Amino acid sequence: MYRKPQVNQLAFEDFVLPFGGKLRSDNRWVILAKQIPWAEADTAYAQQFSQEDVGSPAKSSRVALGALILKERLGVTDRELVAQIAENPYLQYFLGLLAYQDEAPFHHSLLTTFRKRFPHDSLEKINEAIAQLIADAQPTEEKLEEEKGAGEAAAAKGQLLIDATCVPADIKYPTDLHLLNEAREKTEEIIDRLYACRASDKKKPRTYRQKARRDYLRVAKSKKPRSQQLRQGIGKQLRYLRRNLGTIAGMAQESLLVTLPRQRYRQLLVIQELYRQQLWMYTHRSHRIADRLVSISQPHVRPIVRGKAGRPVEFGAKISVSLVEGVSFVDRISWDAYNESVDFVAQIEAYRRRFGHDPASVHVDQIYRTRENRRYCHSKGIRLSGPPLGRPRQVTEATAEQVKQAHHQCHEDATARMAIEGKFGQGKRRFGLGRLMAKLAITSETMIQVSFLVMNLEHLLVRVGSFLFAAWWPSWRNTGKGLLLARWLKRKADYRDRSNCGVEARGVWSPQFLPAW
Fold first, then answer.
1. What is the C-alpha to C-alpha distance for residues 193 and 237, in angstroms, rounded to an integer?
2. d(CA 142, CA 473)
3. Measured between alpha carbons, how far is residue 91 from residues 88, 180, 471 in Å?
4. 43-47 long-range contacts, Cβ below 8 Å, gap at least 24?
5. Looking at residue 515, what is its pLDDT?
6. CA distance 343 to 77
7. pTM to 2 decimals?
8. What confidence category does residue 200 fall into, taking pLDDT thresholds of 50, 70 and 90?
């Protein structure tokens, strides 16, 4: 059951503090709460519940989405987040509470439920609503230019940056020997549990766990085990695991599997598939198989071959991302490896759906520049970054200027594409894309979307702050503090000019162009 909240957005003056006073209007959480489209979040959240008045009411959409945003922006664990919410009135205001309370508004285990209630599609709609807010917060002159060109809806304009990356999951580096040893230990625990539930006085089946442990450590502790030694160790673990699975199959005939918890039964199914894959690779002397399992606790994780220096293979989700003027969109999340060039046309069509026109240029790396994608861009009148197909043009007196312009254009395209690489770095260093701590596939996908949503909120705050500064500067520039700021900016600009780095290249705020905002 879900009850629509009566108050969608509080004024910070109405928040009740037990010790008197009121919240500051310039606090970062107060400002951020005013920028989030809570109405769109409530619409997507309410679809998860039935309309019948049965059961206890669920937490509001603002509490659920706000908690996910707070966790990602603060970079804390679930338990630490709940503790900080109980201590900070600004965080409680951000969650939509009416008054400060000493106790936490929810238990930390509910955060997993919140992640399940915001699937990938719902967060994508919220993210697009934030992108619309960013477009509305742009300076007035840019809006007037867009209104002038509104009649030419089919005209291509804007830059679209496309790239893909892997978001690694929180798993131990998988090896065949370690996976088989872990599977053997879990089957031994299942046998012990089934034997404890057996009503007859039959003798407990043998598992040879001590001998199997010694055989595993004999290979695992070797600094550089030989290939034949490693193969013998894998073969022994396969035989131990086959014996345990046979014992469990015999116990299953006595209807003992019904006593297993859901988690243990799920582990048993994963272990049976793991044994089948490892036996096939051991028999065929191969290291590749379709849908290869690399984790028993997270069977949805697959190896993603990236070919990066120092990390050729990553284990996690592969995502395709579009970036438009600092706003990022997650177009695809897949746990299986795929060629990202197949998403090229779909991402351009998504750009057209969001903005009403095609992009003037698309900036991608080499893997996207296939012949099919080039033909598509040529048919739509879209310029694709990178050099054309064929041999490089010979430099002659007639073509020298054209070749120079082509090289300059390629350099500008490569420079523009650095923005999406920087967005990946921001997500992996500052936010949770460096390592997914969620254990389920659906919750991991939610955390990926929330990370990009929070990065868009950060970009929104910067755009809103710069717009407010542009509107406030003309009335403040002639005051004492304004003159000091203008003098400081002038000295900083002069220093950069002397260093052969112009103000326009670095984007330094200078008094010469501040009044033009």
1. 21
2. 18
3. 6, 46, 29
4. 44/118, 44/122, 44/123, 44/125, 44/126, 45/2, 45/117, 45/118, 45/122, 46/2, 46/4, 47/122
5. 39
6. 34
7. 0.83
8. confident
Check residue 132 and give its pLDDT.
82
pLDDT single digits (tens) 162-190: 999 999 999 999 999 999 999 999 999 99
Distance in angstroms (rounded) separating the CA atoms of residues 341 and 344: 5
Name the pLDDT band for 395 (thresholds 50, 70, 90).
confident
User: Is 480 exposed, middle or buried (CB count within 10 Å of its CB: 0-12, 13-18, 19+)?
Assistant: exposed
More confident residue, 103 or 238: 238
**H or E segment at 468?**
helix 441-476
- Give the separation between CA 487 and CA 493, rounded to whole angstroms: 10
Rounded CA-CA distance 98/493 in Å is 48
The conformation of residue 359, written as its DSSP 8-state character, comes to -
- 90 touches 29 (CB < 8 A): yes
- Residue 406: pLDDT band (50, 70, 90) is confident
3-class DSSP assignment, residue 109: coil
Mean pLDDT of 452-459: 91
Q: Could you report the per-residue pLDDT of 98-150, keeping only the tens digit for each?
A: 888 888 899 999 999 999 999 888 898 898 888 887 777 665 555 555 555 55
**One-letter amino acid of 320:** S
Strands 159-168 and 361-363: parallel
Structure tokens at 375: 């033909």
Amino acid found at 228: Q
Give helix 262-283 / helix 176-196 axis angle, nearest 10°.
Answer: 140
Q: Residue 315 CB: number of other CB atoms within 10 A?
A: 20
Amino acid making up residue 186: K
Residue 253 CA to its chain's centroid (Å): 45
Written as six digits, the tokens of 517 are 């905002």
Contact 514, 477 (CB under 8 A): yes
Q: Where is 461: in which H helix or E strand?
A: helix 441-476
Return the structure tokens found at 507.
Answer: 């984007």
Q: Give the type of residue at 164.
A: A
Cα 240 to Cα 188, 237, 267, distances in angstroms:
10, 5, 17
User: Could you give the CA distance from residue 349 to residue 488 in angstroms, rounded to a whole number?
Assistant: 46
Please tell me the total number of residues recorded for the chain in this structure: 517
Q: How confident is the model at residue 47 (pLDDT cuts 50, 70, 90)?
A: confident
Q: Which of 380, 356, 447, 326 is closest to 67 using CA atoms?
A: 447
- Per-residue tokens: 457: 């909120």
User: What's the token pair of residue 2?
Assistant: 């879900």
Closest CA to 189 of 133, 128, 263, 124: 263
Tokens in use for 19?
Answer: 């010790």
Q: Rounding to the nearest 10 degrees, give the CA dihedral for residues 321, 369, 307, 173.
A: 30
Confidence of residue 497 (pLDDT cuts 50, 70, 90): low
pLDDT digits (tens, 9 = 90+) for 51-71: 676 777 888 899 999 999 999
Let me know: does 94 contact 425? Beta carbons within 8 Å.
no
